[in-house]
Design brief:
The protein is of the alpha/beta class. It contains 16 helices and 15 strands. The chain folds into two domains: about 150 residues, NAD(P)-binding Rossmann-like Domain (Rossmann fold, 3-Layer(aba) Sandwich); about 240 residues, Dihydrodipicolinate Reductase, domain 2. The chain is globular and about 65 Å long.
């Protein structure tokens, strides 16, 4: 059935239009005033340079350093990491000239950087972002934006109060496929959309992290600073090495907060639904048998006035429906828009249309209309110059971040939560509200904004 009615939208239908958009995008670029062209990778003159400080420089942080280094305006002035070997390696990556810090507060006191790039574990994102904006710095922060709704609200209020430019690291937003999906959804081709389903499937074997015992932290590691606002606990290398924090509830909540911001971004962009009225969830830890403590199975339901949205996550079964002749096995992220006239299925790089009683191949799809992105990091640097917020700023991302925070609170409390838009806070039972509210270890506190 699917094979008869499916159409590979990205390749077949939009190739000509995309080539036109490419030409226009190349000419228009970021919308800045025209400048003399330079050879790729050539350094910008001093008047155009943008000074960047990086906080959290292992893994994703070092990848972002390389991404920004490719842009000619970038000058890396400072690097900060609680593990000295990571910071020293980042200093070398920056050309050996960057100042090295282990405490982001000292960096913010002394740096001359125009902006900071934050790639710490997620539990640090709100506090460092807010501190950086208060210090007069623009902020590029890796996803997820926050763990709980009150943190996201505080981040947006600080952004509005300080006038700082912000960008969240949901780089898939800059891709062409997401633009084509948004255009189809908004064209009305699917009819009235009544349901949006987002899915993340992984195939993690039950003992992935092993049962690593606690130990002393390695030399050069400030473990207390790594924990920061989290409850005091012993060092465990499973938490620290190779992105292991993603498997611990205190650091991230669950995989919903790791991969959800990418695929749910497409649903929130296309539908523009705002913060959900309520959230419910079920799930648990049914298969994982290692030192981690995140749930391996999660289902969330978000209520809106005229449609429903769900998020489904399985960590130990990667089976999901792909676009090829056979279902795929492995990691799969997907969103499905179900309308009265058809369904659109999409992942990062492709989409496919299934019509009610018709052939997708016979349908005229909307012409590309959303401007081509010059690149996610490029958008941030351009926004620093123009003082116009880039597409994935904190305010844009807040509804998605609050939805995930509400979903986690519903999951961990076992109760339904609702959103009070006037008061900008969650409401529900005492247990549910407690799960949705930040709780920091002294002396750390979420600023009241």
């Amino acid at each position: 059935m699917a094979r008869k009615t499916g159409a590979n939208v990205t390749r077949r239908e939009f190739l000509k239009g995309a080539s036109t958009a490419l030409a226009v995008g190349a000419a228009v670029g970021s919308g800045l005033a025209p400048r003399r062209l330079r050879a790729q990778g050539a350094a910008a003159p001093p008047s155009e340079r943008i000074l960047l400080a990086f906080i959290g420089v292992a893994g994703r942080g070092s990848a972002l350093m390389n991404d920004f280094k490719r842009l000619p305006e970038t000058v890396i002035t400072d690097v900060c990491d609680v593990y000295r070997p990571h910071a020293e390696a980042a200093r070398e990556l920056a050309g050996g000239r960057a100042e090295v810090y282990s405490d982001f507060r000292k960096l913010l006191e002394k740096t001359k950087a125009d902006a900071v790039v934050i790639a710490t574990p997620p539990h640090w994102h709100p506090l460092i972002s807010i501190a950086a904006m208060e210090a007069g710095k623009d902020v590029y922060c890796e996803k997820p934006m926050c763990l709980r709704p009150d943190e996201g609200v505080a981040m947006v209020r600080t952004m509005q109060k300080t006038g700082r430019v912000t960008q969240l690291g949901t780089q898939i937003h800059a891709g062409e496929n997401f633009r084509r999906v948004v255009e189809i959804v908004r064209s009305g081709l699917l009819g009235k959309i009544t349901s949006v389903r987002t899915i993340v499937s992984l195939n993690e074997y039950p003992g992935k992290l092993g049962n690593v015992p606690d130990s002393d932290p390695p030399e050069g590691m400030d473990w207390d600073m790594w924990l920061g606002p989290l409850p005091k606990r012993p060092f465990n290398r499973a938490l620290f090495e190779s992105g292991g924090h993603r498997y611990f509830r205190a650091c991230v909540g669950s995989w919903v907060n790791e991969l959800g911001p990418h695929i749910m971004d497409l649903a929130f962009w296309a539908m523009a639904p705002g913060i959900p009225r309520s959230a419910q969830a079920s799930g648990g830890r049914f298969a994982l048998q290692d030192v981690s403590d995140i749930p391996d199975t999660v289902d969330m339901l978000f209520e809106y006035p005229d449609f429903s949205m769900t998020f489904t996550h399985t960590a130990t079964n990667g089976y999901n429906f792909g676009f090829g002749p056979e279902p795929d096995r492995g990691r799969r992220l997907m969103v499905l828009f179900h309308g009265t006239q058809g369904t659109l299925a999409a992942d990062y790089g492709s989409c496919r249309l299934f019509l009610e009683g018709g052939k997708a191949e016979d349908v005229k799809l909307p012409e590309p209309s959303i401007p081509r992105s010059p690149g996610h990091q490029r958008e941030f640097l351009d926004a620093i110059k123009t003082r116009q917020q880039p597409p994935c700023n904190f305010e844009y991302h807040l509804p998605l971040a609050v939805a995930i925070g509400m979903g986690h609170a519903a999951l961990f409390s076992g109760e339904k939560l609702s959103w009070n838009d006037r008061r900008q806070r969650v409401e529900g039972s005492r247990a549910a509200v407690a799960e949705a509210t930040s709780r920091y270890r002294a002396p750390w506190q979420l600023p009241k904004v």
